[in-house]
Amino acid sequence: MSGDLERFFWSNDGPIVHKWLHYFPIYERYFGAFKGKPVRFLEIGVSKGGSLDMWRSYFGPEAVIFGIDIDPNCAEFDGRSGAVRIGSQDDPEFLAKVVEEMGGLDLVLDDGSHHSRHIRKSLDTLFPLLSDGGVYMIEDLHAAYWPSFGGGYRRPSSFMEVVKVMIDDMHHWYHSRGEKVQATAGGLSGLHVHDSITVLEKQALSRPAHAQRGRN
Predict the structure, then answer these.
(1) Is 124 a domain residue?
(2) Is residue 8 in a domain?
(3) Backbone angles phi, psi at 5, to 5 degrees
(4) How does pLDDT run across 69-86, given as a tens digit for each residue?
(5) Closest among 106, 126, 102, 136 to 35, alpha carbons compared
(6) How far does the chain reach from its first CA to its final CA, in angstroms?
């Protein structure tokens, strides 16, 4: 077992948690620094409700934890380990209202519809609202290769093609095409791609500088 999250998973006898097992060390790698802190965490996709219990156990009592889902049946989990709000991840007004209620946003985990256009719509709304030093994680991106989820191999509508554009955007200092993904412009300090997961790190950026020191 890789850490606290996987230990919770294997001992869970509450509501269902459904996860690919290789996700757990990735969660620990990027979310570990926020354990035990008053972090503001938003999970897109509540499903069977068990993941909210997992995140509460992991982040601790001071964390502000919200989950959103389009399924009204998920309202039954409101107040169990966090707040649950019913609405769509591709509704900017709904998302902004949830973040306002949270008092801000430090971490996002998109485990929602997995449709590429929904992922992009959420990113366009939420990444600009993310705090400096925040982390935006999108999982189950294998679906971006499936036409039934609006994706496909190298298909322009696939969110994986957006990820490739963001790599170019991070290096806009060195080419003349500018930044194409406006939601992350000027604030994407790191981009990490794992099997089915992409992680975006946010930090206000300034032009890179270089220097030399020492004797010739």
Answers:
(1) yes
(2) yes
(3) -65, -45
(4) 999 999 999 999 999 999
(5) 106
(6) 52
In a domain? residue 68: yes
- Considering all CA atoms of the chain, what is the largest pairwise distance in Å, rounded to the nearest integer? 70
Catalytic residues: 114
> What's the rounded Cα separation, in Å, for the pair 172 and 99?
30
C-alpha radius of gyration, the chain, whole number: 18
Residue 18: CATH number of its domain: 3.40.50.150
Count how many domains the chain has: 1
CA distances for 165 relative to 162, 178, 181, angstroms: 5, 11, 7
Q: What is the pLDDT of residues 30-43, one digit of tens each?
A: 999 999 999 999 99
pTM over 0.70: yes
Backbone dihedral region for residue 180 (phi beyond 0: left; psi -120 to 50: alpha; all else: beta): alpha
List beta partners, residue 194: 197
- For 70, residues 6+ apart whose C-beta sits below 8 A from its C-beta are 86, 87, 88, 89, 113
> Range of 107's domain?
4-142+190-202
Q: How far apart are CA 215 and CA 167, in angstroms?
A: 36
